[in-house]
Task: inverse folding
């Protein structure tokens, strides 16, 4: 009886998890099935041949995927590079230094967790325009150069590192910057990696802000490009091509996840709980 | 220090890349709103390549900007950022708003250089297109590709329902009757609908205005951007007719169906008829496996359809050199050969009358009777509604019609609400124009 | 002094792109601009905002959306975490399936779900038809559309929250659970009396994150429904987007932004403690 209940629960869980994968399964099947506009078995999840790569070819040639990949990588990389500096410095200040109003300043920092750029699009666009950075990738990156989340995470990570290391470095005459970047950061690697994964995932997937802050095709990122696949003006949708395009957008992170699953999972959980 | 180093290099590369884009005097950009998937975007890119090869002194970059509404949004943002695009393929009925907001320049001086008056220039285009392209006698837009709502129907479904495919419904009464015969039910489930229309934003307003016009109405004040007629009997009647199709005759699905769902249903044989733009002709031709035909949008009182599609505009704030180059591109894109080729490729009809005198076009029209219907319907076409705050004003109507399609409101109540909202959106303009007393 | 210098780089960007914009929208919300008219200062934008039925609808939709996404996604995440926590290959594989959606952009999820929700021929209706269920207009029926948008969000976020719960579960001391087992507590009892209370901080943390997502993410609305049909899927942020970029009504957009920012600020003050507790829980 108890074994039955347990089996039933396990089956229900497995069924639920499989249900979660259905959209991906359809994406895979539909992207390989030719003639995706009006076939009767469009919705079928069962792979039935003949398969070909026509949808991928069409998606690839009608979009600017190499450029979009390049821009997205630049965007994520640029944001992350600057963030690493800003959050390490501020994280150290909050973790190790005593100064008046520390808690107040820290709370002010954390407000950014809530006041994310999408909600402040209107004034932020104006700022970009007055800086002459509207329609540049740099403009898209700027609001993210400071990260309350990252500061928080680095503060927590630094706190777990025993002070002995720093004290030894101080005796050797190291400056504060040297302590942060030569001594603490190598020890804070798990925190940094966790932050990197969360940050890249967030900005790889972001849509509204890059959509609004850029207009030239040379500045488009993957999500903005993909949206153009789905928003047809006066024609109908070629579902196979859309599925292929979606696959191309999602593939790098999905592959990363499958390959480095352990790292990903521990990063996401680390970022939340440590 | 390594990380810091990497970051600095990254930032330096970033700054260098984005600051380094060189500004040549004849670099111009063209914003265009066609669906990127499928062949239209590729064809546009190809055309621009041809242009660039023929005009070494100009370099055009084609910028895909999404739907018509998105293109409008992007163009506004770019103008406000002080980076106006050189040429935009803008939904024809948005042009007036740019005139009202003083963001667009009249093309008269450029036309005059070619030795023409604005009137002579517009005479080269089909009469129905002139209204949306001109304002107070000045030319602001050059029609590029245009469309009207068209009735598409499946020949097989017609035959199976005992209807004659050679005599498609011409009046609302015949239309309703055909839709009833085409609707096939299996228990509580409808396996084939009589009719489907796209109910999403932009499309729905266009089709509703078509029904209002074929009901004898005007829908909006063509001479003034501060008035729409949502509560007039002609509009109410049109919305009642939609309500009838959905909730009394049950020949059209309830709620809002988007254009992609409509075409997919048509291809799969799950609707016998659909109303769609002439601009979708090529897409339907390529994907419909069984025979289909096209017909005029059925009338209640008169044959009438609104013009859809887009005009080329040149926003203000471009340098004289860019404006000159933009005008060269506009003239090239609207030449009979290019406009005709684009028309054959897409299904939009060519706005240039002369395009239809070309041999390639004559052959095409004789081979494709569905395209011929679209062209013939042009005789009954009128300008589409153009107002201040046009997208919001249109959405007010669409929200109302959607509520009716979903059975959430009566046509009268929904249209009264739509009128109220549209009036509120146009009020700032109306107060400064029609209601402003001389001081 | 050192602290000031270390905080400076972050502070510059926070000032420019978080605090200054808030000041700007507050100022902008009091500026009333007509067409070609002079600017007046006053509460007119707020008066118009609160009189606008679309705004009321957006608030209501957002409340429904928040409740409709948070409860099922947090609940399911907890369920998946508890059920799939063991280290077998099967569990790991199933965990991956549930977590995958968190890696794809919301617009990509929306692109897939546009087809899944296609009336009649779409994935959902096609399979439901095999079970004899009549077709539904998932995105086009105002009474279903918000539910469909909610379903996408639940699908997308459950895996993310599950990861937090997995970490939280790892922190539940095994000896306490074993002791309860010896005392004869069955699995549900052990879950409700030991695991759940210990997961309290994590649940609080996840709930705040979920609430934040419910207010700040509208990509799928932009791609799939544009707030329709008849305003059924207009969320707060989409309303702001619409006022600012479609009606060019910056006064109304600013006033609406101020209202959302005030709500978010209140939420953050209340929840910072929860967040910190959740994050500290293990250390």
Result:
């Amino acid at each position: 009886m108890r074994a039955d209940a347990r089996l039933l629960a396990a089956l229900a869980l497995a069924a639920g998890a499989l249900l979660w994968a259905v959209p991906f399964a359809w994406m895979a099947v539909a992207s390989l099935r030719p003639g995706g506009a009006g076939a009767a078995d469009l919705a079928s999840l069962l792979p039935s041949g003949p398969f070909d790569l026509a949808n991928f070819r069409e998606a690839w040639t009608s979009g600017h995927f190499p450029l979009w990949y390049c821009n997205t990588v630049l965007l994520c990389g640029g944001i992350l590079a600057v963030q690493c500096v800003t959050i390490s410095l501020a994280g150290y200040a909050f973790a190790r230094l005593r100064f008046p109003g520390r808690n107040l300043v820290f709370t002010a920092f954390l407000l950014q967790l809530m006041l994310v750029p999408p909600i402040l699009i209107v004034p932020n666009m104006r700022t970009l325009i007055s800086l002459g950075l509207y329609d540049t990738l740099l403009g898209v990156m700027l609001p993210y150069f400071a990260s309350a989340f990252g500061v928080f995470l680095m503060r927590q990570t630094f706190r777990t590192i025993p002070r002995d290391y720093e004290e030894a470095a101080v005796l050797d005459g190291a400056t504060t910057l040297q302590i942060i970047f030569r001594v603490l950061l190598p020890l804070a690697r798990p925190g940094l990696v966790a932050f990197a994964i969360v940050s890249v995932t967030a900005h790889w997937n972001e849509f509204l802000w890059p959509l609004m802050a850029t207009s030239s095709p040379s500045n488009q990122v993957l999500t903005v490009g993909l949206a153009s696949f789905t928003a047809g003006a006066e024609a109908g949708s070629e579902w196979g091509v859309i599925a292929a395009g979606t696959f191309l957008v999602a593939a790098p992170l999905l592959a990363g996840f499958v390959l480095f699953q352990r790292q990903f999972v521990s990063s996401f959980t680390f970022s939340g709980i440590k | 220090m390594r990380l810091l180093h990497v970051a600095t290099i990254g930032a330096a590369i970033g700054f260098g890349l984005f600051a380094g884009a060189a500004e040549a005097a004849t670099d111009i950009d063209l914003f265009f709103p066609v669906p990127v998937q499928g062949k239209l975007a590729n064809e546009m890119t190809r055309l621009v390549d041809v242009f660039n090869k023929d005009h070494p002194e100009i370099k055009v970059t084609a910028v895909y900007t999404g739907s018509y509404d998105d293109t409008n949004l992007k163009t506004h943002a770019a103008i406000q950022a002080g980076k106006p695009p050189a040429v935009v393929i803008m939904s024809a009925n948005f042009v007036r708003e740019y005139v009202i907001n003083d963001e667009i320049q009249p093309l008269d001086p450029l036309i005059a250089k070619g030795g023409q008056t604005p009137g002579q220039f517009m005479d080269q285009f089909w009469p129905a297109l002139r209204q949306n392209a001109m304002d107070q006698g000045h030319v602001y837009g050059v029609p590029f590709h245009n469309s009207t709502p068209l009735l598409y129907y499946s020949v097989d479904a017609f035959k199976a329902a005992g209807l004659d495919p050679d005599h498609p419904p011409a009046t609302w009464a015949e239309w309703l009757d055909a839709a009833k015969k085409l609707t096939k039910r299996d228990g509580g489930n409808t396996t084939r609908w009589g009719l489907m229309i796209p109910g999403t934003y932009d499309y729905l307003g266009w089709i509703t205005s078509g029904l209002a016009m074929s009901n004898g109405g005007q829908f909006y004040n063509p001479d003034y951007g501060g008035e729409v007629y949502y509560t007039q009997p002609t509009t109410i009647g049109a919305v009642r007719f939609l309500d009838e199709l959905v909730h009394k005759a049950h020949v059209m699905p309830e709620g809002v169906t988007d254009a992609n769902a409509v075409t997919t249903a048509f291809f799969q044989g799950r609707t016998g008829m659909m109303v769609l733009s002439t601009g979708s002709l090529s897409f339907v031709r390529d994907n419909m496996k069984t025979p289909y035909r096209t017909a005029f949008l059925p009338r209640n009182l008169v044959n009438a359809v609104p013009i859809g599609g887009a005009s080329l505009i040149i926003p203000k704030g471009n340098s004289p050199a860019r404006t000159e180059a933009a005008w060269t591109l506009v003239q090239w894109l609207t030449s009979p050969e290019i406009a005709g080729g684009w028309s054959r490729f897409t299904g939009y009809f060519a706005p240039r009358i002369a395009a239809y005198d070309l041999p390639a076009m004559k052959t095409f029209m004789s081979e494709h009777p569905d395209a011929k219907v679209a062209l013939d319907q042009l005789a009954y076409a009128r300008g589409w509604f153009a107002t201040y705050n046009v997208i919001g004003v249109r959405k007010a109507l669409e929200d109302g019609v959607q509520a009716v399609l979903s059975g959430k409101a009566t046509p009268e109540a929904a249209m009264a609400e739509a009128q109220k909202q549209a009036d509120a959106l146009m009020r700032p303009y109306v107060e400064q124009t029609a209601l402003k007393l001389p001081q | 002094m050192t602290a000031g210098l270390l905080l400076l780089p972050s502070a510059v960007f926070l000032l420019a792109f978080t605090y200054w914009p808030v000041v700007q929208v507050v100022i902008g919300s009091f500026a009333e601009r007509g067409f070609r008219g002079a600017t007046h200062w006053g509460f007119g934008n707020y008066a118009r905002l609160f009189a606008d039925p679309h705004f009321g609808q957006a608030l209501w939709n957002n409340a429904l959306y928040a409740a409709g996404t948070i409860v099922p996604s947090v609940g399911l995440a907890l369920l998946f975490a508890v059920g799939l926590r063991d280290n077998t290959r099967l569990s790991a594989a199933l965990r991956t399936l549930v977590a995958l959606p968190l890696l794809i952009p919301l617009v990509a999820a929306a692109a897939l779900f546009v087809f899944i929700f296609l009336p009649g021929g779409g994935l959902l209706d096609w399979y439901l038809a095999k079970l004899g269920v009549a077709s539904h207009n998932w995105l086009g029926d105002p009474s279903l559309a918000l539910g469909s948008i909610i379903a996408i969000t639940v699908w997308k976020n459950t895996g993310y929250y599950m990861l937090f719960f997995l970490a939280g579960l790892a922190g539940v001391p095994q000896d306490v659970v074993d002791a309860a087992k010896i005392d004869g507590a069955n699995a549900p009892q052990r879950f409700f009396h030991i695991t759940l209370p210990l997961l309290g901080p994590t649940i609080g943390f996840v709930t705040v994150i979920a609430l934040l997502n419910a207010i700040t993410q509208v990509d799928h609305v932009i791609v799939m429904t544009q707030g329709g049909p008849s305003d059924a899927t207009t969320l707060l942020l989409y309303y702001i987007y619409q006022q600012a970029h479609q009606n060019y009504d910056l006064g109304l957009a600013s006033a609406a932004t101020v209202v959302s920012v005030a709500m978010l600020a209140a939420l953050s003050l209340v929840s910072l403690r929860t967040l910190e507790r959740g994050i500290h829980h293990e250390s």
Summary: Chain A touches chain B through 53 residues (CB under 8 Å).
